[in-house]
Write a structure and sequence with these properties.
Elements: E1 6-8, E2 14-16, H1 28-39, E3 44-46, H2 47-54, H3 63-80, E4 87-90, E5 93-96, H4 104-120, H5 124-135, H6 150-171, E6 178-179, H7 180-187, H8 197-206, E7 211-213, E8 222-224, H9 227-239, H10 243-264, H11 270-279, H12 281-293, H13 297-314, H14 319-328, H15 337-350, H16 361-374, H17 383-386, H18 388-395, H19 399-409, H20 415-431, H21 438-452, H22 455-472, H23 475-492, H24 498-512, H25 515-533, H26 539-554, H27 557-571, H28 580-596, H29 600-615, H30 620-634, H31 646-667, H32 677-688, H33 690-701, H34 705-717
Antiparallel strand pairs: 1-2, 3-5, 4-5, 6-8, 7-8
């Protein structure tokens, strides 16, 4: 029967009978002949045209006889497969006697035309259904068995064009461009097989619909659209009724990428994953926004959990906080340790890089409580989740609870958590005046992170060790540690702490007397911070303090005072207690700058404010710095006429010695790197003599924290 034959050309040639049984057609020339006849199904194809397309370059001596022989062979193969005589001989040529719908190309073109008419009539849903049915026929490269023949290449190009359009609109879902792998995973389905994606991408590049950017770390090129083209593609995607399906595939792909990458950001080779996530950041954020817009709390929280550590490493404030704040309003269905961790990570990310716990405390406390119920004896697997309970303990001014948490973390089965625990203990110890053992804790963390091959952890410990070295006045060791940390950061390739390290280097160098080097480091830090934040950031306040210290060290006390005032004005909009320590240190620096210019009354007022600010928070180095500054003030009589009184000078020197000892007691050590305390100590020791100085100093060291604050407050209140 003429209609018993079904021919597929949208891929390798496929011939079937009316039962679906395949019919073998062997040999390239026979397959090309059948393809030519099928493309003209129901129409006579001139013999000359057939011969010219079968033998374009090397025709036989008698093309007509050769074609007749070829037709006879094809008829024989079809009959052998149970197909009747469907190839008719006509005076002008040959005809394949099948209806158009028996050939998949013809059926495809008919359905495509229906789809276009439906679009023109405004029926996007019908158009999408019809076009989807049309594309279901595709099995691979169209007219593959006749590849190289002009007719086949032209027809294939026409058919491929209809598929490239499908790919183009789907690629519009990628705001950050796409790799081949991402396009295959997100855009391919039964309508667009993954094997067809690369040829389609190449076609879009040839037409300048897509541009390419070379990849790094062994990744292939990234394909990008101009925003105007992408906007058009998104409109077409919506018209084709494919937007939700493609966005879901896009979201699933990037959620899997984020969750795969997250633990690898805490292992050897983390730089490669950091750079990959950086290149995919726009797509990752778009996927997260899609889950949030759909109110899919579980997926959105999983995204935040997976991206939280990446955001912390990148150090780009603003967008992560905004994304986390949106997710924080959603209520997850899943109740598990993983989801509790995700909520802790989300709350701390929403708090911002300065850990503004005030804004998120209720949500954070609830998430920490749920996490404790889920895993009461262990440590969270996620490092930001692990910070939730200790940060709450600090907020509640209950540091003992934080150290109890660290004791629990030290028994974790996760080697990264075990490596980080002594770093946390040492960092909190230095913050809370427990310097004894803090540096050795950090040395243990350094050895553990080096053993893991973990560059970020190694660099983080080196920065803390640099602070300890600066406290001892060992500037060479501090600089060496910071330079190694910077080198590790550069190797990571996309780390946000490089500006912070440069600022720390400036702080150390200005204390060591290298003002030129300090200025260069500070400029690099300020430039880097501005670039990563696209403007002034919260971190710029600390860099402003370093700039004020540099001015002070250079003897430009007016410039130091001006910079301090600018930072304090900025901090007026930061009421959280987490800013109290930095605010107090800046107030103390401003006080000493105005004291150097002879304004003792304003100095006292500023130091009184600084003391109240520092006393209201748990960060003891800041309180100790303020007491050191008050010790400097104590050496200055309120009235110049009394400055020559030797008895008063001695009493003031004894008071200064006691205040320096009190600062030591509060901090846990003397700050050999102080711009002020070391000079004050030498001045007082020279005036009093070693024995009297030591007696006064030890009296200060014996004071409790409350008594130290009382003594300091009395000093600024009574000139």
């Amino acid at each position: 029967m003429p209609d018993a034959l079904r021919i597929g050309l949208l891929g390798p040639l496929q011939v079937r009978d009316d039962t679906g049984r395949p019919v073998h057609v062997g040999g390239r020339q026979l397959r090309v002949l059948l393809t030519l006849l099928a493309l003209n199904g129901g129409r006579v194809v001139p013999a000359g045209s057939l011969a010219a397309q079968i033998w374009p370059d090397d025709p036989p001596g008698n093309p007509g006889n050769a074609l007749q022989t070829l037709v006879s062979r094809l008829r024989a193969e079809l009959r052998q497969g149970g197909i009747g005589d469907v190839i008719e001989s006509r005076p002008a040529g040959y005809r394949l006697a099948v209806p158009p719908e028996a050939v998949d190309v013809m059926a495809f073109e008919a359905l495509a035309a229906r789809g276009r008419r439906a679009l023109a009539d405004g029926d996007a849903g019908e158009a999408a259904r019809v076009l989807r049915d049309a594309l279901l026929a595709w099995r691979g490269q169209p007219l593959a068995d006749a590849a190289g023949c002009d007719f086949a290449d032209a027809a294939a190009a026409k058919l491929t064009e209809l598929r490239a359009s499908a790919l183009a609109r789907r690629l519009a879902i990628f705001p950050g461009g796409s790799t081949l792998g991402a396009a295959e995973q997100v855009c391919a389905d039964e309508l667009l097989p993954s094997a067809a994606v690369l040829p389609a991408l190449s076609g879009l590049v040839d037409k300048s619909i897509l541009g390419t950017v070379e990849g790094t770390d062994g990744f292939g090129p990234r394909y990008r659209m101009l925003e105007t083209v992408r906007a058009y593609g998104l409109d077409r995607l919506a018209e084709a009724d494919e937007e939700a399906t493609v966005r879901d595939a896009f979201t699933a792909y990037y959620l899997n990428m984020a969750e795969t990458a997250d633990p690898r950001l805490r292992a050897a080779g983390q730089g490669r994953w950091l750079r990959e996530l950086t290149s995919e950041q726009d797509n990752l954020h778009a996927a997260l926004r899609w889950t949030t817009a759909r109110q899919d709390a579980d997926a959105a929280l999983r995204f935040v959990r997976a991206l939280g550590w990446y955001w912390m490493l990148r150090g780009q404030p603003g967008e992560p906080e905004a994304l986390a704040c949106e997710v924080l309003t959603l209520q997850p269905r899943e109740r598990s340790a993983r989801m509790a961790e995700a909520r802790v990570v989300c709350a701390l990310t929403a708090a911002g890089e300065t850990w503004d716990i005030d804004a998120v405390r209720p949500v954070l406390a609830a998430a920490v409580a749920d996490l404790a119920k889920s895993s009461p004896d262990g440590a969270p697997a996620h490092p930001i989740a692990a910070m939730g309970e200790p940060m709450l303990a600090l907020y509640d001014r209950d540091p003992e609870r934080a150290f109890a948490v660290f004791d629990r973390y030290s028994r974790s089965g996760d080697p990264w958590v075990r490596a980080a625990t002594p770093l946390l203990r040492g960092t909190f110890g230095s913050m809370l005046g427990r310097t004894e053992g803090a540096e050795s804790d950090c040395q243990a963390a350094l050895a553990a992170f080096r053993a893991l091959g973990e560059a970020w952890g190694t660099a983080a410990v080196l920065m803390q060790l640099a602070d300890f070295a600066k406290l001892r006045g060992d500037y060479a060791a501090a600089i060496a540690a910071l330079e190694e940390a910077a080198s590790l950061g550069h190797e990571l390739g996309a780390w946000g702490d490089l500006a912070h390290i440069a600022g720390k280097l400036a702080s150390v160098r200005l204390r060591a007397g290298d003002l030129t080097g300090a200025r260069a480091d500070l400029q690099r830090a300020e430039r880097g911070d501005f670039e990563r934040s696209a403007g002034r950031s919260d971190a710029a306040v600390w860099l402003g303090l370093v700039r004020a210290e540099l001015h002070f060290r250079e003897g430009d006390t007016a410039a130091a005072a001006r910079v301090c005032a600018e930072q304090l004005a900025w901090l007026e909009g930061k009421p959280s207690v987490w800013w109290h320590g930095l605010r107090a240190i800046i107030q103390a620096r401003l006080a000493l700058a105005v004291l150097a210019d002879g304004d003792k009354d304003r100095c006292r007022t500023l130091l009184a404010d600084a003391l109240r600010t520092a006393s209201d928070w748990v960060e003891l180095p800041a309180l100790a710095d303020v007491i050191d500054a008050i010790a400097v003030l104590a050496q200055h009589p309120a009235r110049p006429c009394r400055s020559g009184d030797p008895v008063e000078r001695e009493e003031r020197a004894k008071l200064a010695a006691t205040l320096l000892g009190a600062a030591h007691a509060v901090r846990g050590c003397f700050d050999e790197g102080s711009l002020d305390a070391s000079a004050a100590r030498e001045s007082v020791r020279t005036l009093l003599g070693p024995d009297t100085f030591e007696a006064g100093y030890e009296r200060g060291r014996a004071l409790s924290q409350d008594d130290a604050v009382t003594l300091a407050a009395s000093t600024v209140a009574n000139p």
